[in-house]
Automatic annotation (TrEMBL), chain A:
Transmembrane segments: 28-47, 85-110, 122-145, 157-176, 197-222, 257-276
Protein name: Carbohydrate ABC transporter permease
Organism: Streptomyces omiyaensis
Subcellular location: Cell membrane
Keyword Transmembrane (UniProt): yes
Primary localisation category: membrane
Topology relative to the membrane: Multi-pass membrane protein
Automatic annotation (TrEMBL), chain B:
Lipid bilayer topology: Multi-pass membrane protein
Classification via SUPFAM superfamilies: MetI-like (SSF161098)
TM stretches of this protein: 34-57, 90-116, 128-153, 183-204, 235-254, 296-315
Domain ABC transmembrane type-1: 95-314
Entry keywords, A to Z: Cell membrane, Membrane, Transmembrane, Transmembrane helix, Transport
PROSITE patterns referenced in this protein's UniProt entry, alphabetically: ABC_TM1
Pfam families: BPD_transp_1
Family the entry assigns: Belongs to the binding-protein-dependent transport system permease family.
Cell compartment(s), UniProt: Cell membrane
Name the record gives this protein: Carbohydrate ABC transporter permease
Gene3D superfamilies: MetI-like
Keyword Transmembrane helix recorded: yes
Superkingdom of origin: Bacteria
Length: 291, 325, 447
């Protein structure tokens, strides 16, 4: 970004940067509307999850909570497999976030501050894959994990997700700014080995970006859809999205149970969002990941 | 090309890109010459296995007739799978749907996000609340969001038809209507991503110096004109970035149309009216069991993106030349 | 909270990282299951030291074996065997996964269910990966309907699947709605309304429509009628030589035309089968009759709920037909192939098939079960104590034996969900929808 921009009020997105305009009542009204539209489908998911499917099939739709929430949640948890699915998803999203952050930081550092053969071409190669739709690789990937006997195994979802071209770029960009060459030069003069440099200089400097990348990767992995639906099955280690797909396309459970499943699958992220809203808003504003 | 695009577009990409040519401080001198390779190795191992290998293997697979019933029994067909795409009405239908739904989803989404960001970029009480609430849809998964919206759009008992009935309009068949269904699918995408994009725009807006606004205000510019002439130009990188990401996302659209109807599955509606390319690929591979044809669709999708971004880039270069003249 | 301008500029990395850690911990804590459950494949327990063998049965939908308590009985009879079931809701999701698992030789259950629409393809392409059950202990060829036995037999005489149930056809109808429209309600009289010809079912529908109660259609969907008519044809989508004849077969076209006639006369509730809306159609009595194979009775009972009890009844279908039915196969890659074959043989033996019919309504594919009192004398309390044993036995005996083909399931789906659904729901002309369906079939079958 240009120097002009940096002379601006770049005080960090979650800090109290003071905007130029003052919000009038019109602003509040429109923002209120925007917020209502953003939140309503989620609220209504909870309403629907507390009703019976018979009531959901009547018009006008219900707007108040019913008394079936407990029953629907427990059916979704047990028969819909949402309990197991939540545990699986936590494992998958946690591993993906940790792994992505680790590998992207190391590679990002190397691309930002180290010189090696094919650095340019390799970076270009990684960048080019940003354009590649995830659908592109699924056929051979599917055959590969089938051959490895990994269908229904969580690693079939975790390992491919660790490859984040965005992560490498993002960490590289951050380290270009946060890790001045002088610092590394000084460390080298002191005779520090690569491992020590990484541990004592790179990781501390990268930490804010690592947190952001970890958060974005976690959400992306939690909500990842296309590949898990192919690689996992409802009966073998489903993630939340796989289990929900099963509920949504199945003819066994009823609509209110499907809504209870949707609620269960979304609630953890919403709770985290409510608790760490400031950090997550800051994270999104610092970097963006495709979803 | 992609590297370039992303570097230019990352909203908060700080400073000029690295100093590859600035000579003096060569960091390759860190102790071991192998160190850089060790650091990038884990990434590239995975990248090779799960990034490049599938890419190449898809290209290879697309040259065969391969069925899911017996993937090891493949029959060489050369470019037949591609050639038949040219005359495959279902492919062109899926392509048109992808583009239409993509436009229906992306344009309103980014405009709404721009408006929301502008609203958020004001001194407000409860600012954090508004921002967090805007992210709630982003935290909601494709599956959960689509299942709820599918209920909203129910033909007989859906909330949307109930609401438009209140205003005295006739109910709409959101599943079967060729336009209605595309709009409905697009609306799920809009809902999920508007707040997220708004925050990206907001971040970019906050880097615009106050002095520019003040100067504009001194010139007597209205709030609207200040938005048009100060805010928008400052957002150009962020606009490019969100445009890029949304376009890629639109081309890959899959979960929303798959789950939009519990009865349609991969067909994208009785008349394939909202079948996207991603969904068609899935149908060919995992319903019709033709993996070779699915692989060819996958490569066609990549080709489309490359052509699309190539065209954008050419247009830009051409405009740059004209401007310089 | 947004206005605290005094907030230090750097809310900093440490708190944020901490937040993420906490978040991860919180999420991990949400579920009380162990993080990585054991794989769902074949039994984990080893049978070496007298420990029990665990056998898994992979099914789709509500298959009924578990619901009928058959696994429990088996475990009582075999204390050294534990039986578990894994179930996928939809057959169209289940089947591709079964194929991949067979290809990979991993992720398989010890016994897997296969729908009749897929059995020919399984026999054609997966023979090498499945166990020959013809001579497994407890299997008696003579017990099965000959055509059911033959459907899972390869050219060289191996039998890869044992029939569980078949889908003899009847018509389920709501007595209250029939009475309101001035039609008879007694099942014998109702059966006579359309005996011998599906066209009479249409005529009854038009009579019904003339005096129909508000908001009640005669039948659920045009696709349902079409499927029922096709189920009585001697030739369906493939001929005896295995050639696809769907476009040229007059029987298919006749079924199509009749289904379309229901749509065009507005006699359907315009629902799609096996969707939540359809379920609600049962719950709220939105249609007065439906062509029902035996296995649908349990479904109607589940979705119709207590309110529907006594309102439904079962009458003979215009013509006998067979709609659906399933098989059990044993993958050769399983760890306990012999035990699995024994289980499959037991589950499909006449006595157990009779129990499945008695408790769930899935009609036996074992001819030897037809005479058992549980079958012959069965009455269904939900359907006004209709003598379902007698009705479905009679229907089963009259079923014409049609050749099955590898893509039967896919053709079925396209004819219904791409073709007839449009005639029914969007008013597309039958001719144009037929062409669309034929085109989709050609594309799907790669012709």
């Amino acid at each position: 970004m240009s120097g002009r921009a940096r002379r601006g009020r770049d005080r960090g997105p979650d800090a109290g940067a003071e905007p130029y305009e003052r919000g009038g009542w019109g602003t509040y009204l429109l923002l209120g509307l925007f917020t209502a539209v953003s939140v309503f489908p989620l609220l209504w998911t909870a309403v629907a999850a507390s009703r019976t499917s018979g009531r959901l099939a009547q018009s006008p739709p219900p707007f108040r909570f019913g008394r079936n929430l407990g029953r629907n949640l427990s059916v979704a948890w047990d028969e819909g497999g949402m309990g197991e699915a939540l545990a699986n998803t936590a494992v998958v999203a946690g591993s993906v976030a940790l792994g992505t952050v680790l590998f992207s930081t190391l590679a990002g550092f190397a691309f930002a501050r180290l010189r090696f053969r094919f650095r340019g071409p390799l970076l270009l190669l990684v960048g080019a894959t940003l354009l590649v739709p995830p659908q592109l690789g699924v056929v051979p990937l599917y055959l590969l994990i089938a051959r490895l006997g990994w269908t229904d195994q969580l690693q079939s979802v975790v390992l491919p997700s660790l490859v984040s071209a965005f992560g490498v770029f993002y960490m590289r960009q951050h380290l270009l700014r946060a890790l001045p060459p002088e610092l590394l030069e000084a460390a080298r003069m002191d005779g520090a080995g690569t491992l020590r440099v990484v541990w004592h200089l790179v990781l501390p400097a990268a930490r804010p970006a690592m947190a952001v990348l970890g958060m974005l990767s976690f959400v992306a992995a939690w909500n990842d859809f296309f590949w898990p639906v192919l690689a996992l099955t409802q009966t073998g280690n489903p993630t939340v999205q796989v289990a929900l797909t099963g509920l949504g396309r199945g003819y066994v459970p009823d609509t209110s149970v499907v809504m209870a499943g949707a609620l269960l699958g979304t609630l953890p992220l919403l709770v985290v969002l409510a608790l760490f809203g400031r950090q997550i808003v800051g994270g999104v504003m610092r970097g963006a990941v495709k979803g | 090309m992609a590297e370039d695009l992303v570097e230019r577009a990352l909203p908060l990409a700080p400073g000029p890109p690295g100093p590859p040519g600035t000579g003096r401080r060569r960091l390759g001198r860190l102790r071991s010459r192998a160190a850089p390779y060790v650091l990038v190795a884990p990434f590239f191992l995975l990248f090779g296995a799960f990034g490049l290998f599938p890419l190449a293997a898809t290209a290879w697979t697309s040259l065969f007739r391969v069925e899911l019933t017996a993937p090891e029994a493949r029959e060489w067909v050369g470019l037949h799978n591609y050639a038949r795409l040219l005359t495959d009405d279902f492919f062109w239908n899926a392509l048109a749907n992808t583009v239409l739904i993509g436009v229906l989803a992306t344009v309103p989404q980014l405009l709404l996000a721009l408006g929301a960001a502008h609203l958020l970029d004001a001194r407000l009480r409860g600012r954090l609340f508004f921002r967090v609430a805007a992210l709630a849809p982003y935290a909601t998964s494709v599956a959960a969001a689509t299942l709820v919206f599918a209920l909203f759009y129910g033909r007989d008992q859906g909330m949307v038809n109930w609401a438009i009935g209140l205003v005295g309009l006739a109910p709409v068949d959101w599943q079967n209507g060729p336009w209605a269904s595309k709009f409905a699918v697009a609306s799920i995408v809009i809902w999920r991503w508007t707040g997220y994009n708004a925050l990206i725009y907001l971040a970019a807006m906050q880097t615009i110096p106050h002095e520019l606004y003040e100067a504009a205000a001194l010139d007597g510019a209205s709030r609207w004109r200040r938005f048009l002439h100060v805010t928008l130009p400052g957002l150009r990188p962020a606009l490019a970035f969100t445009g890029l990401v949304s376009t890629i996302g639109a081309l890959q659209l899959f979960g929303e149309p798959l789950l939009f109807s519990s009865g349609a599955g991969a067909s994208g509606g009785a008349d394939h009216q909202y079948q996207t390319l991603g969904l068609y690929l899935y149908e060919q591979g995992w319903v019709n069991l033709h993996l070779g044809r699915a692989a060819a669709i996958a490569w066609a999708m990549l080709l489309l993106l490359v052509v699309l971004f190539g065209a954008v880039r050419l247009a830009r270069v051409a405009r740059g030349r004209r401007a310089r003249r | 909270m947004g206005r605290r301008n005094g907030t230090p500029r750097r809310t900093g990395a440490r708190p944020r990282a901490l937040a993420l850690l906490l978040a991860a911990a919180l999420l991990g804590g949400c579920a009380d299951d162990p993080p990585v459950p054991p794989p769902a494949g074949s039994g984990e327990t080893v049978d070496g030291a007298g420990r029990p063998v665990t056998l898994t049965v992979g099914v789709y939908g509500t298959f009924g074996l578990k619901e009928a308590g058959l696994y429990d009985t088996y475990m009582r009879l075999h204390p050294d065997v534990a039986v578990r079931q894994t179930s996928l809701a939809r057959a169209d999701v289940y089947y591709p996964q079964l194929l991949t698992h067979l290809t990979a030789g991993a992720g398989l259950a010890d016994v897997q269910a296969v729908e009749v629409g897929n059995i020919a393809e399984v026999v054609d392409t997966q023979a090498g990966r499945l166990v020959d059950l013809a001579h497994a202990p407890g299997v008696e060829e003579n017990a099965f309907l000959p055509w059911k036995w033959a459907q899972a037999r390869t050219g060289d005489g191996r039998v890869l699947g044992l029939g569980t149930d078949i889908g003899p056809l009847a018509v389920c109808y709501r007595k209250d709605h029939f009475a309101a429209a001035g039609l008879p309600t007694d099942r014998e009289e109702v059966g006579r309304l359309w005996a011998g010809e599906w066209r009479k079912y249409l005529e009854t529908g038009r009579r019904f429509a003339a005096r129909a109660p508000e908001g009640v259609a005669f039948t659920d969907s045009a696709s349902g009628v079409m499927a029922a008519v096709i189920s009585g044809a001697r030739l369906r989508y493939y001929d005896a030589e295995g050639r696809l004849v769907v476009a040229a077969n007059p029987a298919v076209r006749a079924a199509w035309d009749l289904g379309a006639a229901f749509a065009e006369h507005g006699l359907t509730a315009r629902l799609q089968q096996f969707t939540p809306d359809w379920d609600q159609g049962f719950a709220h009595g939105r249609f007065a009759s439906i062509a029902c194979p035996a296995w649908m009775l349990g479904y109607i009972q589940d979705k119709g709920g207590p309110d529907g009890k006594g309102k439904w009844d079962v009458a003979k279908a215009p013509r006998p037909g067979n709609w659906g039915g399933s098989f059990l196969v044993v993958p050769a890659a399983g760890r306990h192939v012999e035990e699995a074959a024994e289980l499959a043989a037991w589950l499909t033996a006449p006595a157990q098939q009779a129990v499945l019919f008695e408790r769930r309504g899935s009609f036996p594919s074992a001819e030897a079960a037809f005479g058992l009192p549980q079958v012959r004398g069965a009455r269904h309390p939900y359907f006004g104590d209709a003598p379902v044993g007698r009705i479905f036995s009679a229907a089963a005996m009259g079923v014409p034996v049609a050749p099955v083909g590898p893509k039967d399931g896919l053709v079925n789906t396209i004819l219904s969900d791409t073709g007839m659904l449009q005639v029914d729901q969007t008013g597309r002309s039958p001719e144009s929808a037929w062409r669309a369906a034929m085109k989709a079939i050609d594309n799907a079958l790669d012709r």
